[in-house]
Amino acid sequence: MGLIGAIILGVIMLLVFMAVILNFGGLWLRAYTSNARVSFFELIGMKLRQVNASTIVDAKIMAMQAGVGTDPETGITTKRLEAHYLAGGDVPRVINAIIAAQRADIDLDFDRAAAIDLAGRDVLDAVRTSVYPKVIDCPDPAKSPRTTLSAVARNGVELKIRARVTVRTNLAQLIGGATEDTIIARVGEGIITSIGSAATHLEVMENPDRISKAVLQRGLDAHTAFEIVSIDIADIDVGENIGARLQADQAEADTRMAQAFAEQRRANAIALEQEMKAQVAANRAGVLLAQAEVPLAMSDAFRQGNLERSGANGSH
User: Fold this and answer.
1) How would you write 181-226 as a 3-class SS string?
2) Which of 104, 128, 137, 225 has the most CB atoms less than 10 A away?
3) What SS3 class is residue 305?
4) Cα pseudo-dihedral 103, 105, 111, 112, rounded to 10
5) Distances (CA, A) of 125 to 49, 120, 262
6) How far apart are CA 123 and CA 130, in angstroms?
7) How far apart are CA 195 and CA 211, in angstroms?
8) Of 12-21, 31-40, 161-170, which range is least confident?
């Protein structure tokens, strides 16, 4: 019985070994020939943890072949790749980003790349933008109904400007840094402020680069995920004379106000005239009333005999 049990156990172990070889032999051989250091136990553990072993092995092979993260303790280890995979990260994209950064002599380790990826940023695109800066339109026609910025110089003339901002990714501030929308808003604000401080629109038309230099000196890329390389004025047109229009509107408003004051004075004069006429009529009525009381007083005097007594005393 002991012999039979040993045979059965041996058969089971052989079947398990064959199953392991059939399932993970190809991956292990690929990793071994690439010096990726992935054991059968690690492959079995990935299977139990529902990790895509092929993705992890391919990522580690790419890293080893590119010569990045080769340190067995602090480099790109199998456990760190698994952890990033289980956290929902894009392992191949992170490795490609690290390789691209190394080729471009950019300091980017696995921890920072993984953090950028888990933060929802495209780490590979960030590295590419660090190497090849991209251009942002200000204003952005895809996000704004306006195609130009409107600014008014101190002489009241409007200028319509379209700028192009060249930026590259600042990997050190990519996590938590402001996005492209903040860059566009800050650059637009800086351009409008610079034009508003110009004495005339002709100064801006003669030297558009002075606006770019003034805006760049403001440090508009602070606390953003980008570094501004340059700001270029792509187009500048003269708009309407806002100052003259405002002066005309003010003059028209002053005229209307003066007319309103004149109309009020005329109405007050008419009202005063009517009051004086009413007063005259009241005085006339008082005179007529007094005149009407004279005959009544005389008749009353006759009835009382005051007029006769006065006449007799006089004759005597």
Assistant:
1) HHHHHHHHHHHHHHHHCCCCHHHHHHCCHHHHHHHHCCCCCCCECE
2) 225
3) coil
4) -110
5) 30, 12, 70
6) 11
7) 7
8) 12-21
Q: Is the whole model's pTM more than 0.70, yes or no?
A: no
Neighbours of 23 (CB within 10 A): 15
- Helical ranges in the chain per DSSP H: 2-33, 40-48, 53-66, 78-86, 91-103, 110-118, 123-131, 180-196, 201-206, 209-216, 242-304, 306-315
b/e map of 230-262 (b: 16 or more CB within 10 Å)?
ebebeebeeeebeeeeeeeeeeeeeeeeeeeee
Average pLDDT, the chain: 82
Q: Are 231 and 162 in contact (CB under 8 A)?
A: no
Residue 268, strand partner residues: none
Q: Tokens 């003269």 label which residue?
A: 238
| 228 membership: H or E segment, kind and range | strand 226-241
Q: For residues 295 and 150, what is the distance between their CA atoms, to the nearest angstrom? A: 89
- What is the structure's pLDDT at 74? 55
Answer for the pair 199, 245: CB distance below 8 angstroms, yes or no: no
Q: Please tell me the predicted confidence (pLDDT) of residue 22.
A: 58
pLDDT, tens digit, 9 for 90 and up, residues 281-297: 888 888 888 877 777 77
Distance, CA of 281 to CA of 287 (rounded, Å): 10
Q: Which pLDDT does position 50 carry in this prediction?
A: 85
The secondary structure element, H or E, covering residue 231 is strand 226-241
Spell 63-92 as b/e; 16+ CB within 10 A means b.
bbebebbeeeeeebbbebbbebbeeebbbe
CA distances from 216 to 166, 203, 219, 228 (A): 11, 18, 6, 8
State both tokens at 102. 């190394």
Are 236 and 208 in contact, with CB atoms under 8 Å apart? yes
Q: Which of 234, 101, 80 lies closest to 165 in space, CA to CA?
A: 234
Beta bridge partners of 47: none
* Angstrom distance (rounded) from CA 111 to CA 221: 25
